[in-house]
Amino acid sequence: MDINPLVNSLIPSSISVGLLLSFFTYLAVAGSILPGKIVPGVTLTDGTRLHYRCNGLLLLLVLIALLGIGTQLDIVSPTIIADRGLELLSTTFVFSVLVTLLLYVVGCKSSDQNSSLKPHVTGNLIHDWWFGIQLNPQFFGIDLKFFFVRAGMMGWLLINLSILLKALKDSNLTQSMILYQIFCTLYIIDYFFYEEFMTSTWDIIAERLGFMLVFGDLVWIPYTFSIQACNLACCL
């Protein structure tokens, strides 16, 4: 069995890197601009509270509309995610490793004493990298923990839709695929409709941001939750 094609498809490319960075850039910029309900988070141990702009549903709808326009203008292929699924998987995994190593370094050097950024260092590199050092690290005012889980949920839907369009293109649309797409889409829309309740979940209020959460948000959610669609479309 020749595994070279599989190995080659797992190597990140400039296109997969560009797609991932474009996705993150859109979420960061549009998420800061589009209107949304400002929801106060839970009160932290030092008495402070973070505030979250819950505009995820609008952000998702605008993104889908932009992608639809881009498809009509032949700017982007509607099946590009399905066609480059393994590339995007490996690219996202590498990104997760790199960003959590950066979070580890920044956390170790932090001297902040507020609850969100106070470093919790055990001295065990693997433990601190895996579970994280800071509770709510930010990047240019963006709460990374909230950002990553939003990216993962949207990424799951984008992967599903790309696989659906590939199935349509290949005349391989089945009843099972239709039902899977409907149920997943309803679940994801429900998540973003009630996004404000995410601000009081255990992940947000108690767990520090390390590889476990970043990998879970960016890799585990979108790429494992869409395995059923891949299987139904036989696109791997």
UniProtKB/TrEMBL annotation:
UniProt record, GO biological process: sterol biosynthetic process
Source organism of this protein record: Coffea canephora (Robusta coffee)
Family designation: Belongs to the ERG4/ERG24 family.
Example of a GO cellular component annotation carried by this entry: endoplasmic reticulum membrane
Entry protein name: Delta(14)-sterol reductase
Transmembrane residue ranges: 15-36, 57-82, 88-106, 147-165, 177-194
Top-level taxon of origin: Eukaryota
Keywords: Lipid biosynthesis, Lipid metabolism, Membrane, Oxidoreductase, Steroid biosynthesis, Steroid metabolism, Sterol biosynthesis, Sterol metabolism, Transmembrane, Transmembrane helix
